Amino acid sequence: MSVASADVAEYATWLGDDSLILAQRLGELISRAPELEEDVALGNIALDLLGHARSLLQYAGTATAQNEDDLAYWRTEPDFRSAHLMEQPNGDFAHVIARQLVSAHYLYELYARLQASADLTLAAIAAKAVKEVNYHRDHAAQWTLRLALGTDESRRRMVAALSDVWPYVDELFRDEPFIDRLDGIAARPSTLRTAFDAAIEPVLAEADLAVPRGFTAAGGGRRGVHSEHLAFVLAEMQVLTRAHPGAKW
Amino acid sequence: MVTTTNPLENRPAALLEAIARPRPTDAASRRAWALAATVTDPELPVLTIEDLGVLRSASVVDGHVTVTLTPTYSGCPAMHAMQADVAAVLRAAGYASVVVRLVLSPAWSTDWMSAAGAAKLREYGIAPPAGHAAARPSGPAGPLRVSLSVKCPRCSSLNTSELTRFGSTSCKSLWQCRDCLEPFDYFKVL
């Protein structure tokens, strides 16, 4: 595998951390989803995301001679680059679906664009991931329709969930200065917004859901500034490795 | 270890097919390929990794064997078992130096499953992929809502319905036949 430059490694860490933290959140739902089929679906989606995270963090680690486990288990909050959306607590099932709807639509546009990256490792990871994320997008869209157009109670919850999740959308499309140095390599976040809106708005319209208006969360995940939620996610994810360093199956 | 070659999206299907199955030409490498091709998918024991299109290349240079595999899904947990099985088969055949690499590009597609593989799956009770990945929309075309009918592997009825999009493994979804009423796994088009 080629060795990533410091900037490419930083970018791969953004993407890898997004997928890792979201996979960890979805993993919490195994045996907790409203029905067995959703246990399986959310578990499989988490597995795909974990696969993307492993490839991306493995690549990011080449810059500093670290492996994917070093990066996942031995970094602390300020070193994580995930967006705030990914660390949001699961809440009820409608919240899980709202977070999936946004994240899968974002990841789809990201990987669709990144397939053309001049960095061949990123392009290869993206070409693989885009096909899988397409299924995640479809899964979230179908549940959004079912909940929003279902009973009064399911609709009430879907509307509330979307308005709780939406403040975290903007951060996904915010550029950080170092992105300027990755022209042709990174998919510049701000340029993905139009395609994201064009894909997600028809789903919301069909579900008779308005695009929420209101406050925008401050974000800061890309600079290592996180909400109180991330530390709890990391504590659970890292506790075993840290209690038994170097342990193997 | 993940290594990459050029992404090959938007190439004609025939070329993709040729790239997907670059059979070795020399006798030593062909023997290594044949040995590796005996390894089966631990989740789908009727399919060899050759049937599945996961076996990408095998070469022998000065007695050193290099085999490359490509994962079906990014998070497929069976990948490491297949990697270990290929190494074990080759070592058992007398090769001392064996490297089994994983490559991501070009991305695996169900189009690479052989016709023999599809037939074995059907016989095993799993519906093989209906249609081709290449026929699916690419780019931001919105969620996919329409797909081809899936044939019941037991009674061949096309009167079937999806129970859940995500099944027992990443690559399968769960369906039910409306005629014979049996539930069955379907290998999703990817």
From TrEMBL, chain A:
Family matches, as Pfam families: PaaA_PaaC (PF05138)
Any GO CC annotation of this UniProt entry: cytosol
InterPro entries reported for this sequence: Aromatic_CoA_ox/epox, Ferritin-like, Ferritin-like_SF, PaaA_PaaC, PaaC
One GO term (biological process): phenylacetate catabolic process
Annotated signal sequence range: none
Domain of life of the native organism: Bacteria
SUPFAM superfamilies per record: Ferritin-like
Protein name according to UniProt: Phenylacetate-CoA oxygenase subunit PaaI
Taxonomic source organism: Cryobacterium melibiosiphilum
Gene that this polypeptide is encoded by: paaI
From TrEMBL, chain B:
Transmembrane segments: none
Organism: Cryobacterium melibiosiphilum
Gene3D superfamilies in the record: Fe-S cluster assembly (FSCA) (3.30.300.130)
Superkingdom of source: Bacteria
Protein name (database record): Phenylacetate-CoA oxygenase subunit PaaJ
PANTHER family xrefs: 1,2-PHENYLACETYL-COA EPOXIDASE, SUBUNIT D-RELATED, FE-S PROTEIN MATURATION AUXILIARY FACTOR YITW
Pfam families: FeS_assembly_P, Zn_ribbon_PaaD
Domain MIP18 family-like, first and last residues per copy: 37-92
Domain PaaD zinc beta ribbon: from-to ranges: 145-188
